Amino acid sequence: MKKQICCAGFGGQGALSIGKSLVEAGMAEGMEVTWAPSYGPEMRGGTANCEVVLSDKPVGSPTFLHPTELIAMNLPSLDKFEDAVEPGGIIFVNSSVVERKVKRTDVKAIYVPCDEIAEELGNKKVANMVMVGAYVEATKILKPETVTEMIENMFTGRKAKLVPMNLEAVSKGRACVE
């Protein structure tokens, strides 16, 4: 098993955090993982992205040309990376922001209203955790309980009050997947 995931969005949408969350959960499950963020001028309003590999075997390279999955938090990310996804892959789209549908017919598209759900929960910053939930449910690559533990370990001390909202965001994201 090897997943090559491209997580992309505007700087501040949490695309890099999505990737880091997947890597943290993968490490907790004993997987071989890599996380390669892309910094630079993209972070000033353009597309910021990271490449994540989750594998049951040692990872030869942290970068790749053709992701098995794309998480597109905005339209420029979908436009930029849609064609690179492997045939048979999955494209996750933040349908709160991206109005167009995936053009390809050889991939599965999953539309998740991340921002709408986050607003319902009272904090737009949890939109990325909504997408993490959708990814976990659709791919079954990570156990939901591992993601729960990762969130509980991520938010400690004064930030512990954020755990319930983030867990609810993950749960609502999982419910978006049929």
TrEMBL record:
* Record bears the keyword Zinc-finger: no
Which InterPro entries does the protein's record reference?
Answer: 2-oxoglutarate_synth_KorC (IPR052554), Pyrv/ketoisovalerate_OxRed_cat (IPR019752), Pyrv_flavodox_OxRed_cen (IPR002869)
Q: Give any Pfam family that matches.
A: POR
Q: Which UniProt keywords apply?
A: Oxidoreductase
What superkingdom heads the lineage? Bacteria
Record keyword Oxidoreductase present: yes
Q: Which organism is it from?
A: Eubacterium pyruvativorans
SUPFAM superfamilies xrefs: Pyruvate-ferredoxin oxidoreductase, PFOR, domain III
Mind listing the GO molecular function terms for this protein?
oxidoreductase activity, acting on the aldehyde or oxo group of donors
Q: What is this protein called?
A: 2-oxoglutarate ferredoxin oxidoreductase subunit gamma
Residue spans crossing the bilayer: none
Q: Which residues does the UniProt record annotate as the domain Pyruvate/ketoisovalerate oxidoreductase catalytic?
A: 11-174
